[in-house]
Design a protein that fits this description.
By secondary structure, this protein is an alpha+beta fold. It has a single domain, classed as 3-Layer(aba) Sandwich (Rossmann fold). The chain is built from 5 helices and 4 strands.
Length: about 130
């Protein structure tokens, strides 16, 4: 986290940036962060179901989640259409710009039951 705080002090860094240290499942319920962002990114966060569930509440409807993917482009079963729909998300596909990324769009508001309590997304993934 020290590195992230240092980056915010660099010339050209976004003004008003802040580094928050907490579990995503907890931060998602902060009223100031709920549905507050147009873009959420994740790298090495966790399995697809965990990443989607923990990040979705931060997104505005119409917002985009960009998630880094493993290099093997032949893997097609990582993102469940039905599981993502429970969260209000839709997969737009995998893109490659050097590295691979999955693009998800928030198409509707997320049910108040997501994300589930700390640790539950990882222990009982939606897909």
């Amino acid at each position: 986290m020290v590195f992230l705080r240092e980056v915010l002090e660099w010339e050209g860094a976004p003004q008003g940036g802040e580094v928050l240290t907490a579990r995503a499942e907890d931060l998602a319920w902060d009223p100031d962060l709920d549905s507050a962002f147009d873009l959420v990114t994740a790298r090495s966060f966790g399995p697809p179901a965990v990443t989607a569930e923990c990040g979705v509440r931060f997104l505005k409807v119409g917002g985009m989640m960009v998630i880094s993917e493993p290099p093997d482009d032949s893997e097609t079963g990582r993102w469940s259409k039905e599981g993502l729909a429970k969260l209000g998300l839709e997969a737009k596909g995998r893109v490659r710009h050097g590295s691979a990324y999955q693009i998800l769009i928030k198409t509707k508001a997320t049910l108040s039951s997501y994300p589930r309590e700390v640790g539950v997304p990882g222990k009982k993934p939606l897909f």
